[in-house]
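Supplementary Text 2. Reproducibility record for the structural model of the 116-residue chain.

All settings were left at their defaults, and a single model was retained for analysis rather than an ensemble. We include the record here because the model underlies the residue-level annotations in Supplementary Table 4.
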Amino acid sequence: MALAKRPPLPVILVANELAEGDVVFRTATGWSLDHRDALIAGNAEAADALEAEGRAEMAANKVVDAYLVDVVLGETGPMPRHYRERLRVLGPSVRSDLGKQAEIAGQARTALNVSL
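Retained model, structure tokens:
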């Protein structure tokens, strides 16, 4: 079986928290709901370490579907390059006036328009 292709650097580790299902981002001390707290891997060794942490956390049943996401680095922290991942940063899209979307609406909506 072929190995999965790694996204271009820099990358962050994204997963879903097992108990609540929230999108979470790996930090130096655990997991955060805020992508701005994410640990950024800028080289292959750091990316390997993040992947290993993701596998360990999945094996411990703390998160599911942990994977690396390529990001652009901005003034407010890492922002995923791909639209799907940017939507995950925003949270559920059915009510932009509630929850995570309401908290980071201005910053995240502006970031959706970042030129790559």
